From TrEMBL:
Residues 28-120 form the Pyrroline-5-carboxylate reductase catalytic N-terminal domain. It comes from the Bacteria. Keywords: Oxidoreductase. This is NADPH-dependent F420 reductase. Residues 1-13 have a biased composition (Low complexity). It comes from Streptomyces ovatisporus. Pfam families: F420_oxidored. Gene3D superfamilies: NAD(P)-binding Rossmann-like Domain.
Amino acid sequence: MTSSSSASSSSPAPKKDPWDLPDVSGLTVGVLGGTGDQGRGLAYRLARAGQAVIIGSRAAERAQQAADELGMGVEGADNAECARRSDIVIVAVPWDGHARTLEALREELRGKLVVDCVNPLGFDKKGAYAIRPEEGSAAQQAAALLPDSRVTAAFHHLSAVLLADPETEKIDTDVMVLGEVREDCAIVQALAGRIPGMRGIFAGRLRNAHQIESLVANLVSVNRRYKVHAGIRLTDM
């Protein structure tokens, strides 16, 4: 006869609820490229949700000016100071400055949770098109340049116009989050969920980031054709 102790020890561990996400309300979020449209919009939404936010820029004065304009306790600093003082660092710099920015901040980003939301895109007379970096994606480039950081990818498909619009109460979209460590992805999912209307959805490992980044080229075409600010919503979830 099997004892109760041996029976309990052989029982499978209960599966973790994928919607059981950590509390991230006390974490400070830094936004590298926070003076650009996407970074500034993310900073605004997170600060509006009650998150502590630091805007980073190459010039501290420019970052502080953007922070003062946003208000809500947002701070401004140069990129290095922003990275040092933040628990989570969102990379929202232009693609052509992506590698250069991260190389310069390797030490400041050591051990940090880095969220790359950069979309490598080109534009010509036919519209937007995806660029495939040598590493496979912007997120994979970040991981290669920051071997001592915890790199994830998220926030790619958000309209900068909607993010910055104070009349828009909710951003009706899902945020696909990719990364190698599920716990890190859960933190980013929870951060996305702080913004009303958003859900953070785990969407695989960094090797799949190129498809996520490239889809923005399609959204640009949708938005131009229909004069909208389309996002992504996953069904049956």
